[in-house]
Amino acid sequence: MRAVWYDQPGPAAEVLQVGEVPDPVPGHGEVRVRLAFSGINPGDTKKRADWVGYGMPYPRVIPHSDGAGVIDSVGEGVDPGRQRRRVWVYGAQSYRPFGTAAELTVVPAAQAVDLPQGVSDELGACLGIPGITAHRAVFADGPVTGRTVLVHGVLGGVGSLAAQLALWGGATVIGTVRRRAEPSQTGVPTIALDQPDAAAAIRAHAPGGIDRIIEVAFAENIELDAEVAHNQTVIAAYATGRDRPDFPFWPMLFDNVTIRLLGSDDFPAEAKWQAAHDLSEAAAEGALAVTIDTVFPLERAAAAHDRVDAGSRGRVLLAIPQ
Any alpha helices (H) in 144-264, and if so which ranges? Predict the structure, then answer.
């Protein structure tokens, strides 16, 4: 099969290779998916660059955890009736060496989720890491029906899906962007954080305070979050600009604020299953949409990685040759 791989970390143009590798074979409890699209996330390019300095987890890595395609083979213990089913894939390169930047990938059967009729392969390839992270951020602390949810970075991959899932779950949603110049087409009130009093602008939409805060920049926004919180607010953070943030301890203590930190690779299995179920249901109902920035051919994987690293607002995909 044709695939993209790297044998050492580094810049995309220097380490990503494209060529022929042996077809994978599904083992017990696994399925093989013939991919149509591979979704690229910032985490995929950070792994390739070895941003935390852990080194290569495997001698060779085929990158990317997310994708969509059709099951073409099943391993022992998997219902043969799953063959020829359209699916979206998550976690293909989570604690595994070979992801979705290839014509074929093998994953545990539960990580190939039936793609509802009418939902595109492109959307399916965008649901994995950002969708499951967004679902956990919104719903880990219970239903949001009737609650007010603040989504920072509402134009981003996780933030956009978090806002849509919160709306789907019956919440009132407020989003933020970094600068007033950034356009918002989210369908929710959007507050620019570069205005003189962003907290007042948020409170104007939520005078009683915020119930759930979905946080993409914990260190940078925590003072603001403390201002708009109330008793029992949950701050669910999946990213930060500084790895040792300070925060106003006593005001947050008196408000009994919960800080939930989210590392998507290690969510509980049942949480991933529930997220996959809900994401498919919301997509089938037309409640989810993603903005596609660029679709690159497999052969241009390095350019696709560079596009993600440049801070693309929309999703970047690889189109897999059929």
Answer: 157-168, 198-205, 218-228, 249-254
